[in-house]
Amino acid sequence: MEVLGIIISLLLLMFFAYKGFSVIYLAPMFALLAAVSQGLSPLPAYTELFMGKAVGFVKVFLPVFVLGAMFGKVMEDTGMAKSIAKFVTEKLGEKYTIIAIVLTGAFVTYGGMNGLVAGFAVYPIAANLFRQSNWPKRFIPATMFLGFGTATMDALPGTLQHINIIATFYWGTTVYAAPVIGTIGGVAILGLGIFWISHRIKKAVAKGEGYGTGHINEAELSEDMKLPHPILAILPLLIVIGLNFALTVLVKWDPTMLDPYIAMKLPLVTTKLSSILAVWALTTAEVVAIIVALAIGWGNISKTGVSKALNAGAIGSLLAVMNVASEVGYGNVISALPGFKSVATFLLGLSFGGSPLMSEAVTITTLAGMSGSAAGGMVISLELMGKSWLAWAQQIGMSPEILHRIGCMAAGGMDTLPHNGGIITLLAICGLTHKQSYPDIFALTIMKTTMAFLMMGLAVITGWV
Question: Is the pTM of this model over 0.90?
């Protein structure tokens, strides 16, 4: 009965998330349902269990979400994102249209731009190129998704997407964890995805299908804005990547920096420098990049309003951070319930090569799929099982870096089921429906999930990181 309460709670969370209800209120509702089913009082479970971890997550990661969204909005309103996209597609030409669109999305998101913001920036370019080639519009979402929702979200070492940042907090690693496995997996999924989409478009065109008519949200490239030179447009992204690398890898931080704050006995204070270093590095890099981007694109953004861009980015980030924080709180409640011990025993029993990677990958990708969120699936899983996986890895001499990278790739596996908010938003940007475009997105979902398990096997067999 104890396990049944947890299962019912998870299924209800997945079902209502699929129906479009926000996890901000769904997560506490169904966490308390599970708690009550096992005899716990709901109000203490909410204030002490749920909110305890949710607030801790916000305390650490709020600047990452806020500054990332602000940076993306500044890149959009200054015309820099559009300049990069236009330059790449024009230089590669129609023959390499798919590669151009994918690489454009990959580049801007690798540098820290939010995937949804990249969607708004890349869509006008993609729509015009597809229209010029008379290719079916229904393949645009999958093409864009491959660029900013796969390799640069979770696989490539150094990517500044929040999945990669969150993992550093739990494993004490850096965003460059397991570079060999991450690079192989990232390049492989991009290559397979490009092959799949190109093959699908060729088949459709051979049958006489063209761009189509009667579409909504048709994009036209505005010529009113004077776009910055592509080299200047790329500069803020290079600053984020370069400065983050320097602050993470090259700079030697004083290990006693936290001691005065620990002595103050502050609530929620971080006790290990390694667990917060990645957040400090990225926060600093993004502040510098935002200032540089504003300076370069001042002529454009001053017309639309600097405060408007910064406010839109900051306010828009709050929904994302509260979604994940609610899922963190949910995971904390579930992990405290007696019934979870049976579930944990089963999940920890999953093994491949004597390592915890199978247990980690299955758990994270399953919960990511159920919650419709890569970050949610990862955080819930690490809150529930992270310490056990780490202890297991240490027992067999496995580097936490492999846990980091395989966990990230698993989180970016089944997260993109139809109820995923990012997929819903992407289709809305393109003016298309699930029926028209989701089959190819689902094919990519299967590919990236499979790739996580293939890289898991490669890591176990070779010991590469």
Answer: no
